[in-house]
Amino acid sequence: MNNNEKNQTFSGKMHLCFKDQRKYLFQITPKEGFEEKAKRVTTIGKIIVNWQTKISSSKKIHTTNVPIKMPVRPEIEITIDKIPEDVILEQVFEVECRILNRTNDKLPVRLSYQYEKMKGILINGLSGVDLGEIEPFKPEIITIKMFPIFPGIQEIKGIVITNLINKQNFTIISPIKLVVKKN
User: Fold this and answer.
1) What average pLDDT does the chain have?
2) Residue 70 falls within a domain, yes or no?
3) Which intervals hold domain Trafficking protein particle complex subunit 13 C-terminal (predicted)?
4) Which of 23, 66, 82, 99 is most buried, by CB atoms within 10 Å?
């Protein structure tokens, strides 16, 4: 085999003896422009394996449709995108939250806070504010003012977006930890 053939996955003829095995791992990625559609696909089709025996007879195996197990994603996804580098005790700071509607319909939503989950950082603003309708798959950026009341490592959590159609609540995917410094 030359160097070009060594770098290829399927190069030239390969001989396997009786009871030999060969395993391959594939990573399948969608074509450019089809990323969002690919997230809703439940199968990737069939796998067909062709081979030829020593006596030159051809063989073929077809699989049934190969299912994809996608992680369950919420209808509405909330993430914190921007936090300041320095957070000073008892000084208001702002964070940017990204809200993403993963449905195919516009959704009317409300922003509220679960104060019982907020220990060292409080929200500086009103709870229960209607944000209007969120477009499908178009991120909406909102700014939230926060007020740290304890120094040290604190978590930003307790931010809730409510779908006003079915009254379902969604919270931050993963709380953000930050260090609150004394002035």
Assistant:
1) 84
2) no
3) 84-172
4) 99
